[in-house]
Amino acid sequence: MDLVQGIGGVFFRAKDPRAQARWYRDNLGIPISPADGDQTGEERMWDQQAGPTVWGPFPRDTEYFHNPAQQVMINFRVADLDAVLARLRSTGTPIRDEIEEYGYGRFAWACDPEGNWFELWEPRN
């Protein structure tokens, strides 16, 4: 019996939540989610493409998140890693120089305006 069917949302703190939501919309195409109060009419649910999701606890002292104070890192699946990286570079988004490649896909890392590193994953078909 499956008790959980998937991830229903990702929630994180931000100094300026509206600005962060707009940055993710404008740079990664993630819609601004419905929220209590301060709605602008641009909110909608994010209907994702079905695909693999990794649930991966890491050791407390991991350097994988690129910021020792960061407790969580989000991994976004992308169809074209090079195109997403080019778009992010064009906006001045900090991006780690290396791309890692494995049998199951390619990975890169970037940082949002509030210093949260996230991972981009282009799965192998």
How would you describe this structure to a colleague?
The chain has two helices and four strands; from the N terminus they run αβαβββ. The protein is α+β, with helices and mostly antiparallel strands. The protein has a single domain, classed as Roll (2,3-Dihydroxybiphenyl 1,2-Dioxygenase, domain 1), CATH 3.10.180.10.
CATH topology (level 3) name: 2,3-Dihydroxybiphenyl 1,2-Dioxygenase, domain 1
Distance from N terminus to C terminus (CA atoms, Å) equals 28 Å
Mean pLDDT: 87
User: What is the multimeric organization of the chains shown?
Assistant: single chain
H and E string: HEHEEE
Kindly estimate the percentage of residues that lie in beta strands according to DSSP: 15-25%
State the helix count. 2
InterPro entries: Anthracycline_SecMetBiosynth, Glyas_Bleomycin-R_OHBP_Dase, Glyoxalase_6, VOC_core
Pfam families: Glyoxalase_6
Domain VOC: 6-123
Protein name: VOC domain-containing protein
Task: List descriptors.
single chain; 125 residues; alpha+beta; 2,3-Dihydroxybiphenyl 1,2-Dioxygenase, domain 1; 4 strands; 18% helix; VOC_core; Anthracycline_SecMetBiosynth; Glyoxalase_6; VOC domain-containing protein
Topology:
Elements: H1 17-28, E1 75-77, H2 81-90, E2 100-102, E3 105-111, E4 117-123
Parallel strand pairs: 1-4
Antiparallel strand pairs: 2-3, 3-4
